[in-house]
Fold these 4 entries.
Entry 1:
Amino acid sequence: MSDHAHAASLGHDAGHEGGHEGGHDQQAAPDHRKDYIRIFVALLVLTLIEVGITYVKMDRRIMAALMIGLALTKAALVGLYFMHLRYEKRLLLWVAALPLPLAAGYAVFLMLDSNHLFRAITLPWVHH
Amino acid sequence: MSVARPASTPAPHASAHQGAEPTFGLATTGKVGMWIFLVTDAMTFAGLLLGYGILRAGNKQWPLPSSVLGIPFTAFMTFVLIVSSLTMVLALDHAKHGRRAQTVKWLLLTAGGGLFFLCGQVYEYTHLIREGFTLQAGNFPATFFVITSFHGMHVFTGVCYLLITALGVARGKHLENGANFVEITGLFWHFVDLVWILVFTFVYLI
């Protein structure tokens, strides 16, 4: 099914009055239960992989990178499919997603700074 | 149905959607409002997680979380929250088909999942505090309790929101306009799940 067909099925083809069990106008909405269950299974498998990684001995930095990658994948699946961002207008997707890389960049900068990694850098215009 | 349109082009029937916000295509003003709230709320969580990261990055003595916290138990609580996200989308699916009784049933199951998660959090806190892992015991316990309890308050709010929505549906409301009200409730609940995915990874696993 195309994204637009899905978007329509998410209720954007409204203008109909619900409020009664099995209303005829709402019977046209397609069933997405299989898609939802697929995403649910993917989330479960990714969580099991995450927990499994904690029992494997490996470099902490590699482990952290793997965990962050898996967590962001799971978060993206929830946002795109369960919260239907994939089927909204692109502008709404940008509103939701744009602050994330900015926050991530800020986080990395501050954590590096708290580890004093920037003290080794000497800037020509800063006199100590 | 299969005619391709650019993603940014609203569907022809968009104007028929009651309360649609033209700038955001087919999304209603209520949905856009919830998204804007969720983005600002995400920034609050980002600030808390950032504080955790800064304190941890500058501290070589920071314990490995898995040596202090019960990972299998929390993994199970994560499972419960993911299941509650599934029950939420199933509730929305039924709402869009106009099935009132099924919608109420799945909304109540979702709220039940949230309540179960809260009970698990109380059990976890009790266990940790008895072992001396208290708010004053250092930066790790302090940040742990602030972040997880802040999320717990969101779960509590979500459970109340779900119960109010379920009550409204049972009374004959919220299924009109493409079950927009139920969908907005679902946005908040999925956000609670999404944030937990990140909290579980950053605070418990890494």
Note: The two ends of chain B are 46 Å apart (CA to CA).
Entry 2:
Amino acid sequence: MADQTVVPEPPLIEGRGITRLYSMGDSQVAALRGVDFAIRMGENVAIIGPSGSGKSTLLHILGLLDRPTTGTYLFAGVDTDTLDDDRLALLRNRAIGFIFQSFNLVSGESALENVAAPLVYAGVKRKERLERAEESLARVGLSDRAHHDPSQLSGGQRQRVAIARALVTRPAVILADEPTGNLDSRSSADVFSLLQELQAEGLTLVTITHDQRIADRAVRVLRVEDGILVEHGAPAPTYLDGAELQGPTTAPGTPPTGVVVPAQSGLASLGLTREDEQ
Amino acid sequence: MSFVEALRLALRRLGTNPLRTALTTLGVVIGVASLVALIGVGEGTQTAITNQIAGLGTNLLSVNAGSSVVGGVRGAAGSASTLTTADAAAIATLPGVAAVAPEMAVSNVVVVNGRTNSTTSLTGTTPSEASVRNYQIQTGTYLTDLSVTKGLRVAVLGPTTVTDLNATPTSIIGQTITVNGIPFSVIGVTQPKGGSGFTNPDDVVFAPISAVQSRLTGASTLRTIGVSLQDPSQLAYVESEITSLLRYRHNLASSASDDFTMVSQDQLLSVASTTTATIRNFLIGIAAIALVVGGIGIANTMLVSVRERVREIGTRKAIGARRRDITRQFLVEAVIVTLGGAVVGVLLGIAVTGLVGSAVNVPASPTLSGIALAFVSALLVGVVAGYWPARQASRLDPVEALRYE
């Protein structure tokens, strides 16, 4: 980090002209129609937009679960188009933590096993795995629920287990898809403040949300409408609903300013090796 | 994901739904148990039949009368009566021949003892029958040379015949029975040889050939001549000697076919074991089908399981599982179910082998090769049955999988 002043840090995530088309019978539907964005390490970004606008598709592409139809997606400076499925899985395992609206914990497995699951795919030995999972659970304040089945936990607790799972590999970025969407207001507040704390500690946080507080707290709001990014500036403090929004602060298709892409960058900088790789 | 992790995961998963796991396993249990039991019983039956045939006499060669080829159809052995006691006497002089027993057979004779009667078969023969056909005496004596030369009306009974006549081996000695109305006095009872069916060697009456000829048949032709060899390795030699001798004695032209046939005990044994092997293989085939059906059950359950766990698969992919990790997880699950079934099946099969063996009175015991075969087949079935669902799971698109309700 000492050379940060000399060499500009590349954006962690960068998209250029990303489109995503789906075939629906004979016709094609464009979920994303040319999107450019850049997210730096440590940023707190909210993706908002009406349903069907393409924000989930965008998050799936950010999370390397899906590939753009056209356009370039760079993760840590690496063109993800050049990576095979196993490499993408490795990146998801090491560099990305997912949080889902419906938690997606595996029932029949204890909270601790759920949290430790990503480390299984990272090839971490069981003892270390459980230690790290315990640490992670402690971080979200659920040490006392380690051996509970997800079905024995409240919604808020489940989401905190999911957050612990996302944190356990110490990823570069957390991608959260409506993390408070299935929670009551109290649990919502818990999860919300936990995410904000983590972000404040240096984690990159990208959240799809309808939650006004998350949008308000985000350093930057990416607003998606009809497959196009119509805004990537700071959130409007009075933002309430899509209809009341002002026009885009940046013209669609224009690359975000201040982005410097170094010629040389690599996954090695993230320490991406799988321990069980031959 | 390492194999150990896949194993741990699979065991936890299978433990969450024990009833389903048990039911899925049942198909394999039944398949493996049938394989083990049928192979065990099959081997036991084969051993029993082999022993039984060996018990009929060792180094034995049977010369049967007849077997003329008429219009391309070979008549049943013994259907034409060409053998005589003189033939038997001539064979006895051949080198390599230990003993010769002429056999004049009368089937379906009615034997009456007091108010009890029984239908059996009678063999008119000589004392050498006992050594040729390997009969031991239980009570009394066997036929003597004297009884043959004098044509005495004496009889030696098989133990089954004695029982059928409502008597015991000791009580029947000295009794007079009638055979097709002709009185014979019982002088001995043979040792049981074990056996059943219409060729039961224990359901028989022996009488001096001279008495049978004069009192019962009136004919001088034999059905069979039993020949025992000094040395089994001389079988082919003795066979060709007997053939030349009989062809000469029967004045057969060189173009004529033999008017007798010869069957050695070895040939009988091989025919019997071929037959039992065929039956055994047929049964094993049925058991294998049961195992395959068990495999289909596993494949089905695994497909259902994949369908139920689409979101879990999506989640696992999101947190870093590669295709091969997912494949391994489901494949290991299928193989564990199969192996569990195989272990239970082997134990059940061993128990069933014992039960069936004692029920049908066959010395059945589970064989190591049978168990190994069943186990390996089950493993193969598990891998094949698990592979397709596992592949389905690994190929799910993570975005679709995460959206799946």
Note: Chain B touches chain A at residues 1-2, 5, 9, 12-13, 16, 311-312, 314-323, 325, 398-399, 402 (CB under 8 Å).
Entry 3:
Amino acid sequence: MKRRTWWFVAALPPLLALGWAGLAPIELSTRDKLFEIPKGTYARRRAGDLVDILPSRITLTIGLDDVLLLRNLDDVPQQFGPTILMPGQSFRLPFERESENRFECTAHSSGQMLVIVEAEPEWPWQKVRWRWHHWSQRG
Amino acid sequence: MKSRLLRSMLLGVAIAVASVAPAADAPAKPVLKAGVLSPVMPAPQLALGGTDGKPLNLAAYRGKVVLLAFGFSNCGEVCPITLATLAGARKKLGADGAGVQVVYVTVDPERDTEAQMKKYLASFDSTFIGGVGSRAEIDAAQKSYGISSKKNVNPDGSYTIGHSSSIYMIDRAGGLRAVMPYGHPVDDFVHDLKILLRT
């Protein structure tokens, strides 16, 4: 095979992958972005453990993962923003608009959680960027 | 050789095109616009007085959907918007609006007397009921719903109060079903109330 053909063959898969990442619709099995407050969180806080159990900043994307799902697996009630989550209870909060939302959260050492809601990626480069962030976070 | 390369390219393109086809089963949208609590637990009771001259008893509203919020009559920004939104939602529901009871509990018991709250709420909707009481009673009510409030005193001695501004949705069986964050439009309330009035 000619050298030029080899280059072409080598470049084809990454180009196809990039094309797919930019054009294919993003499919997720659920719109929920789940965060769990684990059992023993309150006890750890009382013991002076300031390690953050939940991320202090969460990014959601309209139309994809635009529902924040919090589950309290601790033995005591936990407050998240406007509501008190009883042990075993979950709170499923949907977002429909781009926004930045700051919530009080007793599961955080800072007592605050920032939820950033971004627009749905429409253009190919936006989809590639979203996929890249999504995969890197999972990894 | 060339034809094999061409076949490979065509196959690649076919796979790419096939993968761009719209998804058949997109994940379902949430049913309510508000944040939903699950499992549903009984809404905490309030030991307060009502602006109708009777003790404020949430259990008395079983069979209705209760929209419960906290605020104060001297509030210049958040409360007027919230109350106007809730009044607009009741109005837009038409006859079904009778199945909705708005309860607005003061976070400013020093200034919000029963008469003051009654007059203030009536300027939005005469069916709205206010919750009033002593500082200790209001503190207890706020604690049971996780409401925070902070008094900000101005140089001239006047003050305003920063407070939680979400609206609690209590279903017809008395369960604390959902919480609508501040800022949602009338149509979002109408959407959720129609569902809650059916269930």
Note: Chain B touches chain A at residues 1, 5, 8-9, 12-13, 15-16, 19-20, 22-23, 26-30, 32-33, 35-39, 41, 145-146, 148, 164, 166, 168, 179, 181 (CB under 8 Å).
Entry 4:
Amino acid sequence: MRVILMATLVLVLAGCGDREKVVVYKQGEYQGKTDAAPWNNAIYNGDKAKWEGDIRARGRQQDESRRIGG
Amino acid sequence: MARMKFLCDSERCIECNGCVTACKNEHEVPWGVNRRRVVTLSDGVPGEKSISVACMHCSDAPCMAVCPVDCFYHTDQGVVLHDKDMCIGCGYCFYACPFGAPQYPQMGTFGVRGKMDKCTFCAGGPEVDHSEEEFKKYGRNRLAEGKLPICAEMCSTKALLGGDGDVVADIFRGRALNRGKGADMWGWGTAYGKEGAKQTPPKDKEGKS
């Protein structure tokens, strides 16, 4: 009987435990998952310069006067 | 590299909503959430102006300042993103945002507010690039494919420009000088502050800056 009572008490008390939801909390700092740079993937293989060049070229394509030579 | 920026040319926007549709389709955005929308000023009055509005990825983003769980971060390219796993859907960012960008899905029981959703500049989020997880939470990651946001690339009149701030400002400057009017860079002062003001195009023929 005593063993059952002890076991029940242990189980009941275990429910009172409150763990920290955030391991290290720093006010005003992002603590979520890290995000990879857009060139760190299978397409660019870490080639930052190529990615920047591609984005700039793509941006300039928005200028229709450049595309039609006007 | 300069930071990523959006610029909407109100002289060119024809309120076709192509940007809105392209965004919804590209990212399979849920019902009731509009990452981008077109706002018309003085609707029906001669001289009305339309502007395509979404998250402007502000330099000093107010959403980041008010978030109680600090789920926002700035990428090195100046894109404001957030971790949906941390978001509690409190709605503070919606009240802080001058552009009304944060959106909340209300698919739950009793219209309960879900985790915030907003324009990602087609840069995905804090998940493995091009993974199913990233697509489900944040939409497609076009930036990691070397492409610009779909809204800007789809714009038929090229009113909406997106990409490197210097490139975008150069294109707009050329246009404003060429047509001699409409040099207002809507929302740039609010979103990019002094940095944005530096890229204000020269005065037009009417003397307006």
Note: The two ends of chain A are 94 Å apart (CA to CA).
